[in-house]
C-alpha cells in the first residue's frame, strides 16, 4: 500500500506545473512512454531523451527528472511513472575506498586487478595499455585505458598484430559508465579464465577483456558512493542542464550522425563534434585494427569472408537482449544468417531476446558494434544484461545480484562466444 501511495505521489508531482529550480539532489524517474517501433520511437530518440535499451511491447522507457513528463507531453508523448528513485542522503565514498555501493569495484581497483592477475599468472595473462582517457590527455586526472590478454602463452600470442596465430574474443564493460553490472561481469570473467575449467579452452584462443572502457565516466559514477551517479557518457565537455560528456556508443565512425543520436551536448546520446572525436573511441578502434584482420569489402551489404575469425562483445545493461548489426538500420548485413545464429545460441542460454536493435528496440547509429563489423567484418554483439524491474533489475542492482542472478546467465553466453570466435562464419 505504501508503494502504491508513493507512486501516486510521484505521478502527481510529474503532472503538476513545473516547479522552480530546487537546491540539492533531485529524484530520478523512469517513465513508461508509448512509442511503437518505427517513426514514433525514432522521433523520441531524435528529441534527445535518455531512452533506455529496454522495450515492453509498444512502450519505451525514459530516464528523467520531475520536469521530463511535462516535456514529453509538450512533444506529443504520454508517460506514466514506472519507477521513482528518491535522492540519497548518504555521503559519497572516501577516495581510498576500493569498492562502492555495497561491493562494486572502483576504477582504481579494476586496473589494479588486471596487474594482479598478470603477476599471479604470467603464463596466461598480459596487460596492455592501449591509450589514455580524456581527463588524462588534459592533465586533469584520468586513467590509462587497459586491456588484459589471457591465453596459454605461446610465441606470437597477445601481440598487437592482426596476424597473430590464435582467434580472438574481445569482451568489454562499462562503455556506458552507469551500467555497473557489466564491469562486475568482466571482473568475474577474468578470474574465471585463469582459475576454472575455462583455462583449458585457452590453448587455441586468446581472450581480451577491457573491464572499464569509460574510466572517466565510471569515476563520476562511483563518486556518489552509496548513491551512484547515473553518468552514461565520458567526461569531455560541459553542460548546464544535464550531464556532461559524449556518448561513446554514438561516436564511432560507422554511419555516425544518423538516427538515434543527438547534437545537443546535454543529451545522453550526444554524438560528439565529429565521428571518432573521443579519445576512448579512437583508442578502441586502433586496438581492434591491431587485433583483427579486415575481411569485409566496403558497402553495407558486403559479407565478410568465410575465413574470418574472432568476435567482439560489448556488455551493456539493461533489458535482457543480444543485439547484432546493423543497429543504424533494419537492413541486413552480408553475414546476417551467421550473426543471427550466434546471437540466438547465446540468447537461448540466458533467456534473453536476440535481434537487430531496430527489430526489438529502435535504430541508433555510431555504435561500436556496428563499427567493428563495418570496418573489419568481425562479428560483434551487444548484450543488455538485466531485467528492467525487480530487485535485480535496472542500472543499480544490489551487488549480491551479480553472483546470484546475472553471472549464472552471462557465463554460459561467454563460453558460447569463446567457441563461436574460432570460426564464426
Structure overview:
This is M14 family zinc carboxypeptidase. Belongs to the peptidase M14 family. With 425 residues, the protein is α/β, with parallel strands linked by helices. The protein contains 12 helices and 14 strands. The strands form 3 sheets. The chain has an 8-stranded mixed β-sheet, sandwiched between helices. It has a 4-stranded antiparallel β-sheet with strand order 2-3-1-4. α9 links the parallel β12 and β13. α4 packs parallel to α6, α6 crosses α12 and α8 packs parallel to α11. It is globular. The chain starts with a helix and ends in a 5-residue tail after the last helix. The N terminus is likely disordered.
Topology, element by element:
Blueprint: H1 2-15, E1 28-34, H2 39-46, E2 50-56, E3 59-64, H3 68-74, E4 80-85, E5 99-100, E6 104-105, H4 107-120, E7 125-132, H5 134-137, E8 144-150, E9 168-172, H6 180-195, E10 206-210, H7 215-222, H8 279-291, E11 311-316, E12 321-323, H9 336-350, E13 353-355, H10 357-360, H11 368-376, E14 380-384, H12 400-420
Parallel strand pairs: 9-10, 9-11, 11-14, 12-13
Antiparallel strand pairs: 1-3, 1-4, 2-3, 5-6, 7-8, 8-10, 12-14
Amino acid at each position: 500500500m505504501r508503494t502504491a501511495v508513493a507512486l501516486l505521489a510521484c505521478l502527481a508531482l510529474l503532472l503538476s506545473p513545473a516547479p522552480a529550480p530546487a537546491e540539492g539532489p533531485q529524484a530520478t524517474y523512469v517513465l513508461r512512454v508509448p512509442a511503437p517501433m518505427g517513426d514514433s520511437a525514432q522521433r523520441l530518440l531524435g528529441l534527445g531523451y535518455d531512452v533506455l535499451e529496454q522495450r515492453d511491447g509498444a512502450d519505451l522507457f525514459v530516464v528523467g527528472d520531475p520536469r521530463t513528463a511535462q516535456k514529453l507531453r509538450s512533444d506529443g508523448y504520454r508517460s506514466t511513472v514506472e519507477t521513482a528513485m528518491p535522492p540519497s542522503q548518504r555521503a559519497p565514498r572516501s577516495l581510498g575506498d576500493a569498492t562502492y555501493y555495497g561491493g562494486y569495484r572502483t576504477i582504481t581497483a579494476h586496473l589494479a586487478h588486471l596487474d594482479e592477475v598478470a603477476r599471479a599468472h604470467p603464463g596466461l595473462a598480459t596487460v596492455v595499455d592501449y591509450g589514455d582517457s580524456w581527463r588524462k590527455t588534459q592533465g586533469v586526472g584520468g586513467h590509462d585505458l587497459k586491456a588484459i590478454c589471457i591465453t596459454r602463452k605461446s610465441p606470437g600470442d597477445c601481440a598487437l598484430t592482426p596476424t597473430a596465430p590464435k582467434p580472438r574474443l574481445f569482451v568489454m564493460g562499462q562503455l556506458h559508465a552507469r551500467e555497473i553490472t557489466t564491469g562486475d561481469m568482466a571482473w568475474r570473467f577474468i578470474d574465471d579464465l585463469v582459475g576454472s575449467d575455462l583455462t583449458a579452452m585457452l590453448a587455441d584462443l586468446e581472450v581480451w577483456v577491457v573491464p572499464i572502457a569509460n574510466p572517466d565516466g565510471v569515476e563520476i559514477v562511483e563518486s556518489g558512493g552509496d548513491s551512484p551517479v547515473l553518468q552514461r557518457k565520458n567526461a569531455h565537455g560541459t553542460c548546464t542542464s544535464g550531464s556532461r560528456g559524449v556518448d561513446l556508443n554514438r561516436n564511432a565512425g560507422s554511419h555516425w550522425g544518423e538516427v538515434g543520436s543527438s547534437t545537443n551536448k546535454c543529451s545522453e546520446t550526444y554524438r560528439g563534434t565529429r565521428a571518432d572525436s573521443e579519445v576512448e573511441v579512437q583508442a578502441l578502434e586502433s586496438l581492434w585494427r591491431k587485433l583483427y584482420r579486415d575481411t569485409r569489402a566496403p558497402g553495407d551489404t558486403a559479407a565478410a569472408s568465410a575465413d574470418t575469425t574472432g568476435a567482439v562483445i560489448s556488455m551493456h545493461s539493461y533489458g535482457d537482449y543480444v543485439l547484432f548489426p546493423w543497429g543504424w538500420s533494419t537492413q541486413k548485413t552480408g553475414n546476417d544468417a551467421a550473426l543471427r545464429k550466434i546471437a540466438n545460441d547465446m540468447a537461448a542460454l540466458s533467456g534473453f531476446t536476440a535481434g537487430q536493435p531496430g527489430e526489438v528496440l529502435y535504430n541508433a547509429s555510431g555504435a561500436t558494434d556496428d563499427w567493428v563489423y563495418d570496418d573489419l567484418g568481425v562479428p560483434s554483439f551487444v548484450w543488455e544484461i538485466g531485467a528492467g524491474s525487480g530487485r535485480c533489475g535496472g542500472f543499480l542492482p544490489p551487488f549480491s545480484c551479480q553472483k546470484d542472478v546475472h553471472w549464472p546467465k552471462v557465463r554460459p553466453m561467454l563460453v558460447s562466444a569463446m567457441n563461436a570466435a574460432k570460426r564464426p562464419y
